[in-house]
Amino acid sequence: MKLAPSIIATLAVLTATPAYAQTAGQAGGGYGFFVMLALMFGVFYFLLIRPQQKRQKEHKAMIEAVRRGDTVVTAGGMIGRVTKVIDDNEIQVELSENVRVRVLKGTLADVRGKTEPASSSGSKDKKDKSEKPEASAANDEPANDKTPTSD
Hints:
Strand order of the largest sheet: 4-3-2-1-5
Helix content: 25-40%
Distance between the termini: 113 Å
Number of strands: 5
Low-confidence stretches: 122-131
Shape: elongated
CATH topology of the domain at 65-114: SH3 type barrels
Structural class: alpha+beta
Order of helices and strands: HHEEEEE
CATH architecture of the domain at 65-114: Roll
């Protein structure tokens, strides 16, 4: 059976003993490897592990602080208002009028805070347009509607 020259070369490389390719080792050079390994672990700890632990701690505190009336976002992307805290692990969320679901606190992605209910009258301290302008706060002179005339 004939084997292609490239297959024979590949087999020769794979079966060759590595003793021919080794060079003489350095005396006392084993400490450099451990120093480099320790530096790499330090970089990973300060850039990856520590910030992730901080985020987890903040998220846990946020979930534990959920109260009735808070607007929450679930991991599935549903946004609703907390209507009832059932126990330490479960809440009831109102997604729209008369649509309430039970949600595990661990599946909350964000707590946006309390929403203020709209006032029933619909007016918010609107000023009457017929009122005269008040005195400006910068100086004690009353504001007037006269424009300066050029001479």
